[in-house]
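Supplementary material to the annual report.
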Amino acid sequence: MKPLPELTADEQRRYEWQLTVRDFGMEGQRRLKRATVLISRIGGVGGSAALQLAAAGIGRLILAHAGNVRLDDLNRQLLMTTESLGRPRIESAARRLRELNPHVEIETVAENICEGNVAELVGRCDVVVSAAPLFTERLLMNRQAVRWQKPLVDCSMYDLEARLMTVLPGRTPCLECLYPEPPPNWKRQFPVFSAVSCTVGSLAAMETIKVIAGFGGPLAGRLLLGDLRDMSFRTLPIARREDCAACGA
Amino acid sequence: MNVSVEFTGQLRTAMGHANDWVELPEGATVAMLLVQLGQRCGEAARTHLLNASKQPQPSLLVAINGTAFPSRQAASTVLSEGDTVVLLPPIAGG
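Predicted assembly:
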């Protein structure tokens, strides 16, 4: 692993208010600067996670998302702008993140996660944030995260519901332990307010920060369920599955 | 006996409500609960509960009294009066 980089005076000033977070401090900040995070899709959930991770000072973000900005993206995809309609989503996202924090390296991949790119992309990162609207992509990411022993934060929502789990390969259940097969009836177009997708993305970013900086308690072996309809949040214990085809626990 | 059932995600939308009490015979299992629910709900909800062979849908996650298991692992669990069951089809909204 690369040695921890020093922070410049400008970076120390930028992050001053978070450097006082208990158990985080300068070493935590330097760990964030050293880290590379892959985010699969930068829509409502992944885009919000990217925004939070850029603000926090992750060293390098790899963003994977195909397609151009559409009008019906703009109720929730906060990295996209009206001005960028019809242009690649990834361009708008990179510009917004660089405006927020020029210290963060932004690598763009104008493709969705697929069999052809997933191993290389996961292999080059330290943590994966999985936020694709298709379950097959999530399971692909999970397989590679397990293979490369990379922590994976799986964050999803539907309507006013939120779900989040953190996979620490070899230690916790993986996504496939819970869901051995893709659901036959998931519809890609789902009901969503930005306030919900941003909440989930922000929670995923906090998990990622904790995992990288090594403080707090991640959702290891627990599934977070949130329902913003009645503002209830709870965690359910989850277990590894001995016959899991991905992690073979 | 009666067990409390909570529906989440697209299953909640398909059922049209979030919670239900279900009456089952003594010794009933999670698989029997899913079949009973499948008999009284519409097709849209049934596909979240059962596959074409009327077996528990493999992608369904089932939490029994606060601990979650894949449906096939949970299927043979014998339920008791007052148990709470949360049915969690996968969601992937991103």
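The interface with chain B takes residues 41, 43-46, 131-135, 138, 155-159, 161, 163, 177-187, 190, 192, 197, 223, 225, 227, 236-239, 241 of chain A (CB under 8 Å).
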